[in-house]
Amino acid sequence: MSFPNVRNRRLRGSQALRNLVKETQLSVSDLVYPIFVTYGSNIKAEISSMPGVFHYSLDRLEEEIKEIVSLGIQAILLFGVPEHKDAMGTSAYEEQGIVQQATRKIKKLAPELLIIADTCLCQFTDHGHCGVVQHDPQTNKTEVNNDLSLELLVQTAVSQAQAGADIIAPSNMMDGFVQAIRSGLDEAGYENVPIMSYSVKYASAFYGPFRDAAHSAPQSGDRKTYQMDPANAREALREAEADVLEGADMLMVKPALAYMDIIRTLRDNFDLPIVAYNVSAEYSMVKAAAQNGWIDEKAIVMEMLLGFKRAGADIILTYFAKDAARWLS
């Protein structure tokens, strides 16, 4: 007896046949690798909650950049851990800030490598929030001042572009941040620098190891007043649409693993490149399980990355980028 779906089995008969009819392709050119740069000298310090990911001082950057380039990875997402922090996050937009110094150094080491600069204040403020925090004595509430934060974020973006960043990636989730940064970049003569907007960034529990890596955990309160509620999907469309209208060039969903439906929703509604951020806890959980021998790390990682592509992502930010590049070669 022949069943209607026997065709599916016929098309699975060999690896060559499966390759021929494969619907979704993953390549190293889809991947962006995040790196953490810090002050000091001769520092290559593994981040305890993220096995295989390190803090690098400027004088140790070359070895990391050479490895990234040798693996065929074409873009990095750059985070800086500053020497000092204050209430206004001034080291985020200083000419000699850690991100600015690292950007100039990387451009000398590997001019062809795309540098995506994370544009936020949380690593640089002593309170750990993504904007300027002010206390209102009338209401006795401490809140982020959105408009003042935008001014400083524009300064940060422009300073990053001046240092040589190829793409500005604002992750702060302030209202109107794309429009403000687009205007600031244009006025400073950086009309051709694209914005990779953290358009749909949820107030997620999956960020824990990153906050350890970036030393960016809020000292009080949380970020739920400006990051999205994980329960909301329709809100993601509103956030993304606002960023499109304000001038974003790429739209990011963060985190990725628990939000593949959101990646698909953005893919179905917008024609801009969609970015999936495979965040720190998604990485650390897999690493921990693999170290305990509970899973096949390569198989799990490649299936997960393929899932992001199948859901509609064009670009994947992932701490697995170096591992995946080796497995894809």
Characterization of this structure:
The chain has 329 residues and is of the alpha/beta class. It has helices spanning 6-10, 15-20, 61-70, 98-109, 146-163, 177-187, 208-214, 234-246, 260-269, 280-291, 297-311, 321-328, and strands at residues 31-38, 44-46, 54-57, 75-81, 114-119, 132-136, 141-145, 167-170, 196-201, 250-254, 274-278, 315-318. Strands 1, 2, 3, 4, 5, 8, 9, 10, 11 and 12 form a 10-stranded mixed β-sheet that branches. A hairpin with a 7-residue loop joins strand 2 (44-46) and strand 3 (54-57). Helix 5 packs across helix 6. The relative contact order is 0.13. The mean pLDDT is 89.
Beta percentage is 15-25%
In this structure, how is the largest beta sheet organized? Answer: 10 strands, mixed
How many alpha or pi helices?
12
| Number of DSSP-assigned strands | 12
Mean pLDDT: 89
Q: What is the string of SSEs from the N terminus onward?
A: HHEEEHEHEEEHEHEHHEHEHHEH
Share of residues in helices:
25-40%
